[in-house]
Design brief:
The complex is a heterodimer of chains A (359) and B (431).
Chain A (H helix, E strand, L loop, with lengths): L6 H30 L21 H23 L29 H20 L4 H25 L1 H6 L18 H33 L5 H26 L3 H20 L4 H29 L5 H31 L6 H6 L8
Chain B lengths: L2 H20 L9 E10 L5 E9 L6 E4 L5 E8 L7 E4 L2 E4 L6 E8 L3 E4 L2 E8 L3 E4 L4 E6 L5 E5 L2 E6 L2 E9 L4 H21 L5 H15 L3 H42 L5 H17 L2 H17 L6 H28 L17 H7 L5 H12 L3 E3 H8 L3 H13 L3 E6 L2 E6 L6
Parallel strand pairs in B: 1-10
Antiparallel strand pairs in B: 1-2, 2-7, 3-6, 4-7, 5-6, 8-9, 9-14, 10-13, 11-14, 12-13, 15-17, 16-17
Helix pairs in contact in B: 2-3, 2-4, 3-4, 4-5, 4-6, 5-6, 10-11
The chains are: A mainly alpha (359), B alpha+beta (431).
């Protein structure tokens, strides 16, 4: 038996569901981010539950195994004072009959003795798991390390004097002296050069974006076209004023203004009615800025006689991305226009400003 | 159809939703993307950090969160290596990136490590795969997760962990018994190989080294290391024996040649047989036996005599019999009258030893040789070998070697009297 809903109600419900989808879309990234950074103090990390069937490099596994084994022997020699273990397999401190490691002296603290034996047995079990699942076996070795760390805590607590004897670290100076730190003079000089170059690239990007604007203006809503044009025009004007600041040597002020110009450009794009169009301009502007940077880098490398083929490839790829974004937008808007039942606004289109690239 | 506009609305909003979820909202959100992160840890707990991020080419200034404030020696460079101006506020660093494609942050921080006893803990929360290089001599004790890579970089161990809340526990100065054993084995193998390339036969040392390897294979690292070291010592001792044996064989060979050229061929066959045996043992690597036979050959060659005619032989036999009888009688008398303190037998004639002259001529004498010479000086310049052994409480073989040295240095001479060996300071060292 179905529940009857009016068509109006159905429409409302659909729109509501879609709005919920829309609102939750950005959250998906946050949730994903939280998943990837999950962790706890007990050592359960991103792939640390031992139940996953994730693949582990056999060489990495081998290293983990060796590290675990080496720690066991380290602690065995440290706790027992032995200078050589007899691997006769007759050690069995807890009566289970399982322990098959080197003999652990009876006079060792029973808790330590048992922990050492358990760690050995867990290590053996890990090795037995190798054939089935390396990931699980590796997790088992990590558990053994944790057990060993616990034995160390106890040993350290019970033997503070012995532990103190071994606390002297080897000479290991940090190579982080003042050498290589730039001086304020160097920073200021370089900053001046970089500000100038950045301003030039920004200006070139905006100029190219006017061409981009001309290419896509027919696909924009008239108001959005105006907003996009104005955004670029305002940026262009600001960059001219920034040039004056740079010429006056006011680099800090120029950077403040450059930052502002970039943010304002983004904000003005955001004011566009159609979010797709806004995103298109934002993406294209970013890609264009990267292209300008790559071109500058390529020219500098070419001047030094270095190979620039890789840079050319990247520049072409970025240009291709812009073209793709442009085409995708055009296709989507085309569909959208079809859906407008032919109610296009040809009058508004005529009012859209035109800007030449060399303007 | 009525559903037409509704379907269009659905597709439009779905498209928008998809676009917003997949296209990075980069203008309003973060202006950088973490690329790589490395922490090189040092024994004092300092972490030298290198953080690489991709930045926005359109941004003049970006804010990046770094790890573990407070920090020092912070340097930020763009993708061309230019140092950039920055300001900091806690973990946030505002960089004048000026359109850089990449930014590299390098700095030192001590706030990511803690120490409990001798166990260090490194904790950090990272957004990108992270490489952690441990201090020199540090051993991993535990880690928060299975690493994607683990190995040794130069002499320092490193691990690479996936992004997240990372912890690495390590100890510095813990003896790495396995590595030490491995090093000892390698060193022993190399040492023995060098000696063997000089044609020495090191059977015993090889056997010990093999045992060391077996012990290593069964995880008995300390014992393995001890064995490997013993293999080296044994090899050195064997070489010393070989050198001595070689010298003794040479001396014996000369003695045999000398006897032969002197016509002292009686007893020379035995000397030659002993010499051949010595050479065989030497080539087999049994240098101790080689030496024994070489010395025997030398003595036999030295005592070889010129053959006599039959009449003379009979006379000689009679004479020897007489001497033997006389000698026996003499010995019995000595035994009856032997003084308790090792006074030499022939004490009728005072023999005062010039020790200074001996020591001056033979400045490389061993301490024990000098002591024996002093004893001989106190004993009228002569004593039986047995008396020397008793006096110094040394084994027969040691006494024999000691006396051989003094004989070879021509300080003393040795005479057989009955079954006993009388050691006597040569006349040239008497006052």
């Amino acid at each position: 038996m179905g529940i009857y809903l009016s068509e109006k109600m159905k429409t409302k419900l659909l729109v509501l569901a879609l709005l919920l989808m829309l609102l939750s879309a950005p959250l998906a990234q946050v949730v994903y981010a939280e998943d990837t950074t999950d962790g706890d103090d007990t050592g359960g990390g991103t792939n640390g539950d031992g139940t996953g069937n994730g693949n582990i490099d056999p060489l990495v596994y081998q290293q983990i195994k060796e590290v675990t084994k080496a720690r066991w022997w380290n602690l065995y020699y440290l706790y027992t004072g032995q200078q050589g273990g007899e691997d006769d397999g007759d050690g069995d401190g807890d009566g289970t009959g399982e322990y098959d490691g080197p003999e652990i002296p009876e006079d060792l603290d029973p808790e330590l003795r048992n922990q050492l034996m358990n760690a050995w047995m867990e290590m053996t079990r890990a090795e037995e798991m190798e054939g089935e699942n390396l990931q699980t076996a590796a997790q088992q070795h990590l558990r053994v390390m944790r057990m060993l760390r616990n034995t160390w805590r106890k040993y350290q607590k019970d033997n503070p004097d012995i532990v103190d004897d071994t606390t002297e670290p080897p000479e290991d100076p940090v190579d982080g002296g003042d050498d290589g730190l730039p001086t304020d003079e160097e920073l200021t000089e370089i900053q001046g050069q970089l500000v100038n170059r950045f301003q030039e690239r920004f200006r070139d990007s905006v100029t190219t974006m006017f061409q981009f604007y001309n290419d896509v203006e027919d696909d924009l809503d008239p108001d959005d076209a105006m907003k996009a044009y104005n955004a670029l025009y305002h940026a262009e004007q600001k960059l001219l004023r920034i040039q004056e600041r740079i010429n006056a040597g006011d680099y800090e002020g120029a950077i403040d203004d450059l930052e502002g110009a970039g943010n304002d450009l983004g904000d003005e794009y955001d004011d566009m009615e159609d979010p797709q169009s806004a995103q298109l301009f934002k993406t294209a502007t970013k890609l264009q800025a990267k292209i300008e940077k790559m071109i500058e880098k390529k020219e500098r490398k070419a001047a030094q006689g270095e190979d620039t083929s890789g840079d050319d490839d990247l520049i072409n790829q970025l240009k291709g991305n812009i073209d793709k974004a442009k085409n995708d937008h055009k296709e989507n808007k085309g569909k959208g226009n079809d859906n407008d039942n032919g109610n296009g606004n040809d009058k508004d289109k005529e009012k859209k400003p035109k800007k030449k690239k060399d303007e | 159809m009525f559903m037409g506009p509704m379907r269009r609305t659905f597709f439009f909003i779905a498209f928008l939703s998809l676009s917003l979820s997949t296209i990075p909202l980069s203008w309003a959100q973060e202006d950088y993307t973490p690329v790589s992160l490395t922490f090189a840890l040092y024994s004092d707990g300092t972490a030298r950090t290198e953080y690489l991020v991709e930045s926005d080419a359109l941004q003049a200034r970006i804010e990046v969160e770094i790890f573990g404030p407070p920090y020092n020696h912070l340097v930020i460079r763009d993708d061309e290596g230019n140092p950039l101006v920055y300001s900091t506020e806690e973990a946030n660093v505002t960089v004048d990136s000026l359109g850089a494609l990449e930014l590299t942050f390098t700095y030192l921080t001590m706030s990511l490590t803690t120490k409990e006893g001798i166990v260090w803990t490194f904790n950090v929360s990272t957004p990108v795969s992270t490489r952690i290089v441990l201090p020199e001599g540090a051993a991993i004790f535990d880690m928060s997760d299975i690493p994607t890579d683990i190995g040794v970089d130069g002499s320092r161990q490193y691990i690479v962990l996936e992004p997240g809340d990372l912890s690495v526990y390590y100890m510095i100065g813990l003896p790495d018994v396995e590595s030490e054993a491995q090093e000892a084995l390698t060193e022993a193998e190399s040492h023995l190989g060098d000696l063997e390339s000089s044609s020495y036969v090191l059977t015993e040392a090889r056997s010990i080294l093999s045992q060391a390897q077996d012990l290593y294979d069964s995880d008995q690292y300390v014992e393995s290391k001890n064995r490997a070291e013993l293999a080296v010592t044994t090899a050195d001792e064997t070489v010393e024996d070989a050198v001595n044996a070689y010298a003794d064989i040479g001396r014996a060979s000369e003695a045999v040649s000398q006897a032969s050229s002197d016509g002292r061929i009686d007893g020379l066959d035995e000397a030659q047989s002993s010499l051949e045996a010595a050479s065989t043992y030497y080539s087999e690597g049994n240098y101790v036996e080689a030496r024994t036979y070489a010395l025997q050959a030398y003595q036999q060659a030295a005592t070889a005599i010129t053959p006599k005619s039959n009449s003379l032989l009979y006379a000689g036999i009679l004479l020897l019999a007489g001497l033997g009888g006389g000698g026996y009688y003499y010995m019995q008398r000595i035994k009856a009258k032997k003084p308790p303190s090792g006074v030499p037998v022939d004490s009728s004639q005072a023999r005062e030893v010039n020790l200074d002259l001996i020591f001056w001529h033979h400045q490389d004498l061993r301490l024990e040789d000098k002591e024996v010479l002093r004893f001989l000086a106190e004993s009228n310049g002569e004593a039986f070998a047995s008396e020397i052994r008793d006096r110094f409480e040394i084994p027969r073989s040691s006494a024999w070697r000691l006396i051989r040295r003094l004989v070879n240095n021509e300080i003393v001479e040795e005479r057989k009297i009955g079954n006993q060996s009388l050691v006597r300071v040569r006349d040239k060292y008497l006052k």
